[in-house]
Amino acid sequence: MNKSLINLTPEEILNKEFKIDTRGYRLKEVDQFLDEIIADYQTFNKIILDLQKEKEENIETILELKQENRDLRTSVEISKSANNRDGNFNNLDILKRISQLEKIVYGKDE
């Protein structure tokens, strides 16, 4: 969580001391309102932490799927080359296959 964007923590709100004036606010109302704010802050913190955890899991899944995709593309290319009908390769075919394999290996998606 980016602490620089949040001014107060739930603990700071809870421990805030107000000066009492003769014509000040009703302390009970202020305390009740601050309790609501603290509860909201705690809820926000939990939501943020849950979303950060979910984001990390999603990034991990994406990386795994990209690697699986690269592996499958490599397998397809190998299968294509093994099933070449005439069995003869010319230089152009070899260069195309090398180019495709480089894209797969170096992560350049089409």
Kindly estimate the percentage of residues that lie in beta strands according to DSSP.
under 5%
Structural class: mainly alpha
> How many alpha or pi helices?
3
Please count the beta strands (DSSP E, at least 2 residues each): 0
Order of helices and strands: HHH
How many structural domains does the protein architecture include?
1
Rg (C-alpha, Å): 30 Å
Cα end-to-end separation: 35 Å
Q: Which geometry do the CA atoms define? A: rod-shaped
Low-confidence stretches: none
Describe, in plain words, how this protein is organized in 3D.
The protein has 110 residues and is mainly α. It has one domain (3-105). 69% of the residues lie in helices and 0% in strands. It is built from 3 helices and no strands. Helix 2 runs antiparallel to helix 3 (91-105). The protein is rod-shaped, with a radius of gyration of 30 Å. The relative contact order is 0.07.
Topology:
Layout: H1 10-14, H2 27-82, H3 91-105
Helix pairs in contact: 2-3
Overview in brief:
This protein has 110 residues and is mainly α. It is 69% helix and 0% strand.
Task: For the structure shown, list the relevant keywords.
110 residues
